Amino acid sequence: MIAPEQPLLAVEGLSRYYGARVGCRDVSFELYPGEVLAVVGESGSGKSTLLSLLSAQLEPSAGSVSYRMRDGVMRNVTELNEAERRLLMRTDWGFIRQDPAEGLRMGVSAGANVGERLMGVGARHYGAIRGEALSWLDRVEIDADRIDDLPRTFSGGMRQRLQFARNLVTHPRLIFMDEPTGGLDVSVQARLLDLLRGLVFDLDLSVVIVTHDLAVARIISHRIMVMRHGQVIETGLTDQVLDDPSEPYTQLLVSSVLQV
Amino acid sequence: MSQATGYNFAYLDEQTKRMIRRAILKAIAIPGYQTPFASREMPMPYGWGTGGVQVTAAILGPDDVLKVIDQGSDDTTNAVSIRKFFEKTAGVATTTRTAEATIIQTRHRIPETSLGAHQVLVYQVPIPEPLRFLEPRETETRKMHALAEYGLMHVKLYEDIARHGHIATTYAYPVKVAGRYLMDPSPTPKFDNPKMHRSPALQLFGAGREKRIYAVPPYTEVVSLDFDDHPFEINRFDRPCALCGAGDVYLDEVILDDGGRRMFVCSDTDYCEARRAEGHRGEMSGQAPAIGAAP
Predict the structure, then answer these.
(1) pLDDT tens-digit profile of B241-282?
(2) Which of A60, A53, A55 is nearest to A16 (CA)?
(3) Averaged pLDDT for residues B98-111
(4) What are residue A63's phi and psi, to 5 degrees?
(5) How far apart are CA A192 and CA A163, in angstroms?
(6) Which of A82, A107, A115 sits opposite B158 (nearest CB)?
(7) Across chain A, which distance is largest between two alpha carbons, in Å?
(8) What is the pTM of this model?
C-alpha cells in the first residue's frame, strides 16, 4: 500500500442539534485521498444529517469540517463564503442523491445535464461540451444515441448512472452519496455498484457513502462507521467490522441481514 | 389636448411617482439588476403593460412627447389605449413619429429609426427573470444573480442546438449587461438585440405584475449570449418589405386570404410610412383594395 498522504477531509467534534433533539453528536474522522468511507445505521440515526453537514448544506452547532483545496491548503468549509462553497460544490465535489430526479434536471436532455457543470465553470464551445458529454455517457454505459433524450425517458438505473456522469464531469476529488442504490432492483444495483467501484478506482475518488444496506457497504467501502442515535458507536475496516462486530448494536445490525 | 379633471398629472399620485423614480435611479445605477418596487394596481389588466405605464407615468413631464407602440405598430389596441390614457390624464402631446418622441413606450419592439440621447425607451415586461423557466425558485435565481452564476442560461442554449441544430430562441434572447447582470430584454425579437448595445437612449424596463424595474443606461455594453462555435445571429428575411421595399428591417407576415396568399411588411409602421412618403415602393404597394371593395 502507498504511504498515507495528508487527509483530504478532516472532521472534528461535529455536532448538530435540532432544538433539544440531537441530529448528530461529536463525530470525528479523517478521509484520505482514494478512500471510501461508508456510514451505516438505521433510519433516524443521523446519517443524512452528517452528510448535509459534511457537504456544507447545513450549519453545524459545534465542531468543524476541513477540506484540502486543490492548492493544498486546508480550509474550514463552514467558514467559506457562499460563492466559494457553491463553486466547490460544482467543481471539486459531487453529490449523488437517492432520488435522481432531485440531482438531475429532468426538463433538459442527458447531454445538457452532463454539460451543465462545464458551462457553469465557463465552457463556451458547444462541440467541446458535447464531446465531453458523449465520452462521459460512454463511461457510465449509456448509449450515445440517448444524448438528446430527456432523463424522464430513462430507467431508474440509467438515471442514477447519468447522475454519476453529471457529477464526475468536472473531475471532482470528493463525492458524497446518499443511498445511491436505494429503490433499485437487485440486479441493477449490482451493475451500478460494479460501475461505481470501477469509477472510484480509475479516478482515485474519495467517497463518503451513506447507506442502510450493509451489502453495499461491504462491496464498495474500505472503512465503515456505524451510527446510532446521532453518535458513531463503532468504526474500523469494513470487513473487520462486518465480520467481527464488537458493539452489541452492530452485532444486531449485521445479524439482521437476511441470508439467501 | 387638455387634461381630465379629478386626476393627478399622469394618473399616479406624487408619492407613488417618487417611489418609482427611486427604483428607476437604483436600476440605472446597477445596469441590468432587477430592482423591486411597490407596483400599483393600474386601470388595466396585468399583461397589458402595467409596468411600462407606471414607469412612463413616473418620468413623464408636461413638455414630453409620447409615442406608444405594440409589436412595432402605433395603431393596435394596446398602443392606442395607452396613448389615450396619457392624453387624458397628463394632457401631453403624442406622436407616432419615432424621431419626434421624447418617451417611447414599447411592447416587444425597438423602433427601426435609431434613437438619440434625448429619448427614453420604456419596455413593458411580462416576466423579468431570464432564468425563470430553468429555475422556478426566486430565492435561487436571486442567489444566482448575486454570485453571477449564469451557466444555466447556456444549458438552455445548448438544448436549443441539440434539438434544432442552431440556437432557436428567437425572442426574449438573453443578454449580459455591462459585463455583469444577465437580463431578459423582454419579448423583443432577437433582431432588436444589437440595437440595445451602446444605445444613446436610456432604456427602462417595467414589470408590473412581477414588481420589478430594470434599466440599461445610455452607451452600455449589451452582449447577446452564445457559444464560440454557434455565434449569435439575428433573424434574416429572404425578401424586402412588400410596401416600402426596406430590406434591413423586421417584417411581419400578413395573411391575405384563405388561398394561402401572404405578404411581408415592416413591423414598425411609422418607419414604413416614412419610407413610403419618401417615395420608396415595395412590390405590392398601391395594390390594396379599397375599403369595402368586393374580394
Answers:
(1) 999 999 999 999 999 999 989 999 999 999 999 999 999 998
(2) A60
(3) 96
(4) 95, 180
(5) 12
(6) A115
(7) 57
(8) 0.86
Once rounded to an integer, what is the mean pLDDT over residues A92-121? 94
CA dist A59 → A14, A93, A96 (Å): 10, 18, 20
ipTM at complex level: 0.86
Query: With contact defined as beta carbons under 8 Å apart, do B92 and B65 qualify?
Result: yes
Distance CA B292, CA B294 (A): 6
Q: Do A121 and B151 touch (CB under 8 A)?
A: yes
Please write down the long-range contacts of B163-167, taking CB distance under 8 Å and 24 or more positions apart: B163/A109, B163/A148, B166/B230, B167/B226, B167/B227, B167/B230, B167/B232, B167/B233
Cβ distance B169 to B160 under 8 Å? yes
Q: Cβ–Cβ of A109/B228 closer than 8 Å?
A: no
- Select the residue from B155, B167, B226 to test the A interface by mutation, using most A Cβ atoms within 10 A: B155
- pLDDT band of B289, cuts 50, 70, 90: low
Closest listed residue to residue B171, CA positions, set B214, B110, B96: B110
Backbone dihedral angles phi then psi of residue B203, each to the nearest 5 degrees:
-115, 120
Cell of A193: 455498484
